[in-house]
Write a structure and sequence with these properties.
The chain has about 325 residues and is of the alpha/beta class. The protein has 2 domains: about 210 residues, Alpha-Beta Complex (Spore Coat Polysaccharide Biosynthesis Protein SpsA, Chain A); about 90 residues, Hexapeptide repeat proteins (UDP N-Acetylglucosamine Acyltransferase, domain 1), CATH 2.160.10. The strands form 7 sheets. The chain has a 7-stranded mixed β-sheet, sandwiched between helices. A hairpin with a 5-residue loop joins strand 9 and strand 10. The chain is elongated and about 65 Å long. The relative contact order is 0.13. The mean pLDDT is about 95. Bound molecules: guanosine-5'-triphosphate (GTP). Guanosine-5'-triphosphate binds next to helix 4.
């Protein structure tokens, strides 16, 4: 069985981190988001097709090196075609029931149980569903007693939502869906295709546990805390890192980092970060190879890859961009 992982968005809300790293490769507990998705796939899935575009070379380099028991194809989209156009673009790979999953969803969904649910219902497809308190930023759906989806609404305004069940970003589809997607243009699966499939039987699969759509740095943080809690860990330290200080709660330290006599709490440090004596890092993300000199304060901030923070600087509530921003 095949799984398509949608990996081609620009990740604009996740800037500045996505200026240098495509969102699917951003580390969460020292593992790229896309690998969290791949590791959650059922055994039955033996091939993964990554529908990619933005910074595809970095994705290819990563999959050339990484070890996984799935056969991974990284397929280029001529330009970003939206969630539906992306699937259409790789239709040659899809000749039987397949998964489509967003690369930036971190959740406790059991994809094998989801597949059993879909097979028991029949129909042309299924959409994972998650209950939220405020659905205004999401696509919502209404289901009947047999879990069949009756209607959708995209990003309902205040007081307009007819349900708080949101599209959680994992689809199981039959290949006939491909015939309904126009080729050679941008198409949104959620806005354009799913509403047209209602008569063919689309089912909503609810699950329990957690669900985080890592679209923004704040949600990446939420996923970071959720997964550390799930593992019962306060901190995680990558290989070859030297940590000569006591870390606060909710800290992940990537590989090859050096931390000396500093105060770090509730933060994500990517590989190769160096933090010197007397510095404080709180509620922040430090990108690859960031160097923090002595007596620096960094709070509620994002520091892009390879930046050098000089002694005594105070960075509070800032997003520091990389020294060169490429416009892709
Ligand atoms: P924003 O620019 O911040 O909205 O992020 P995004 O571009 O990643 O869009 P969004 O978060 O809505 O995307 C959800 C998932 O679909 C992510 O895994 C994206 O990589 C992927 N995605 C979004 N648009 C496209 C596209 O045009 N082509 C492909 N192949 N994937 C896409």
């Amino acid at each position: 069985m095949k799984a398509v992982i949608l990996s081609g968005g620009f990740g604009t809300r996740m800037r500045p981190l996505t200026y240098t790293t495509p969102k699917p490769l951003l580390p969460l507990l020292n593992k790229p988001l896309v690998m969290h998705v791949i590791d959650s796939l059922p055994e039955e899935v033996d091939e993964v097709v990554l529908a990619a575009n933005y910074k595809i070379d970095l994705l290819r380099d990563f999959f050339d090196e990484v070890e996984t028991d799935k056969n991974v194809h990284v397929v280029d989209e001529p330009e970003p075609r939206g969630t539906g156009g992306a699937v259409k673009n790789i239709e040659e790979y899809l000749d039987e029931t397949f998964f489509v999953i967003n690369a930036d969803i971190i959740s406790s969904i059991d994809l094998e149980a989801y597949l059993d649910f879909f097979r028991s219902k029949g129909g042309i497809g299924a959409i994972s569903a998650w209950r939220v308190e405020d659905p205004s930023e999401f696509g919502i759906m209404e289901t009947d007693d047999n879990h069949r989806i009756k209607r959708f609404q995209e990003k309902p305004g205040p007081g307009e939502a007819f349900s708080n069940l949101v599209n959680a970003g994992h689809y199981i589809l039959e290949p006939e869906v491909l015939d309904r997607i126009p080729s050679d243009r941008k198409v949104s699966m959620e806005d354009e295709i799913f509403p047209r499939l209602l008569d063919d039987g689309l089912y909503g699969y609810r699950f329990k546990g957690y669900w985080v759509d890592c679209g923004r740095p704040s949600s990446l943080f939420k996923a970071h805390r959720t997964l550390l809690d799930e593992k019962g860990k306060k901190t995680l330290i990558g290989d070859r890192s030297v940590v000569d200080t006591e870390l606060g709660d909710y800290v992940t330290v990537g590989m090859d980092c050096t931390l000396e006599g500093c105060d770090v709490s509730n933060s994500m440090l990517f590989d190769g970060v160096e933090i010197s004596k007397g510095s404080t890092v709180e509620n922040s993300i430090l990108g690859y190879d960031v160097v923090v000199e002595e007596n620096v304060t960094i709070k509620d901030s994002i520091i892009s890859d390879e930046l050098y923070i000089e002694s005594g600087e105070k960075i509070i509530g800032e997003k520091l961009e990389p020294s060169e921003v490429e416009d892709d």
